[in-house]
Write a structure and sequence with these properties.
Largest sheet: none
Strand content: under 5%
Order of helices and strands: HHHHHHHHHHHHHHHH
Oligomer: single chain
Distance between the termini: 82 Å
Shape: elongated
Helix content: over 70%
């Protein structure tokens, strides 16, 4: 028999390249996990492995596997990888944003649908394998009569619903975490948080694309395999991006952050309680004096706990004072003083001895990106434009 597999064409070759690259970064993450025991690396390894598995199955099809091996049993191993990737996405982000994260027994229940589906597929394979003539066909009795007409459409719908829920929960987890960062820390770990945001955006985009394509193909007109190839190709590019950024972005510093309470925005006390209003004004003036005299904002690692100790206040008292008295979250409050210090140094012509970034570092900022973003947010102009307008 003349074998035409593998066929390296315009559809198969890009997918093969992307899948191999994704596997390289997957095993780099696995190696780092085994060495450093960072559980988030293990979750990202799982995401890449399942994603590459889905890619490989499509790649083999475009390389001529099904045409060459007419009695292949590979269909028994094919499934929507979303039922595996969805909980891994949630656990990956949770492991990054949770201090001292530990995998608990109940976390394994996230993979119950995947486990049950795998057992079901093993059962129908074993059943079909003992039927007469199984070795001559691609799909057996139960695969044709039960799995393809009933179970697969059901699992497709279930997979979409599961991915939607997990993405929603994970996005909620991320945005809540970002708010807490602003309430506790004067620098916002922009690089790490941007990676999480982009990671979730990629999977939200792929999920939306998949849903739209499935709806079009199911209810309007059937898409050819070459038309569906684009989703697989874009998914392959996403795998490379996630592999590279996930490997080189250091998220361990986020896991070390400790939030001992969840601050809420608290309004100014009611006027009917005059004593509380006086205490609040006293606290506001005390915090303002502390910032102006001792200048704790010059410390780039300043956080709510450190400032509360300096102010001799509890963290909740300080958080309430900043929110109610200055109408700002902790991050904006501290950066407001840093920007004022920057403006004073410009007025003192320090820019003749230091670069703008050097002055920003002197004022407590820890990165160029953070400085530019905060300056633009609070002054509605860029540092360079501000300098030109000043001189």
């Amino acid at each position: 028999m003349f074998l035409t597999f593998p066929s390296f064409g315009k559809y198969s070759t890009p997918l093969l390249f992307l899948s191999l690259q994704g596997l390289i970064f997957a095993f780099l993450l696995l190696h780092r996990y085994l060495k450093e025991k960072n559980i988030s690396d293990a979750f990202l390894f799982g995401i890449l492995i399942f994603a590459c598995y889905g890619q490989t199955c499509y790649t083999m099809g475009f390389m001529g596997w099904y045409d060459t091996y007419r009695n292949t049993k590979i269909n028994y191993a094919l499934f929507s990888v979303g039922i595996a990737v969805a909980p891994l996405i949630y656990l990956y982000i949770k492991s990054i944003t949770t201090s001292e994260f530990r995998l608990r027994v109940k976390d394994f229940f996230h993979f119950l649908p995947l486990t049950l589906f795998a057992l079901y597929r093993v059962f129908i394979y074993v059943f079909d394998a003992v039927q007469p003539g199984f070795h001559e066909v691609q799909n057996g009795v139960l695969k044709l009569s039960l799995d393809e007409p009933y179970v697969q459409p059901l699992m497709t719908a279930f997979g979409f619903a599961q991915m939607l829920l997990y993405l929603a929960f994970t996005l909620q987890l991320f945005y809540h975490y970002r708010r807490k960062i602003n309430a506790f820390f004067s620098n916002t770990y922009k690089l790490e948080l941007n990676w999480i945001r982009n990671f979730l955006f990629v999977y939200t985009f792929l999920f939306t694309y998949d849903v739209v394509q499935t709806i079009v193909s199911s209810f309007f007109f059937e898409l050819w395999y070459t038309q569906q190839w684009w989703l697989v190709f874009i998914s392959g590019i996403a795998i490379i991006y996630i592999g590279i950024k996930g490997f080189f972005t250091d998220t361990t510093k986020l896991k070390k952050l400790n939030f001992s309470f969840s601050p809420n925005k608290i309004s100014v006390p009611e006027l009917q309680n005059h004593q509380k209003k006086e205490i609040s004004e006293e606290a506001i003036n005390m915090v303002k004096s502390l910032m102006e005299v001792e200048k704790p904002y010059l410390n780039p690692e300043l956080n709510l706990i450190d400032l509360a100790k300096l102010a001799n206040m509890s963290r909740s008292q300080l958080s309430e004072t900043i929110n109610a008295g200055f109408n700002k979250n902790f991050n904006d409050f501290v950066n407001m003083y840093r920007i004022d210090a920057f403006k004073k140094m410009i007025a003192a012509e320090k820019h003749e001895q230091l670069s703008l970034l050097g002055i920003a570092f002197e004022c407590g900022f820890n990165s160029k990106a953070t400085f530019n973003r905060v300056f633009k947010k609070l002054t509605h102009t860029s540092p360079t434009e501000f300098l030109r307008a000043t001189v």
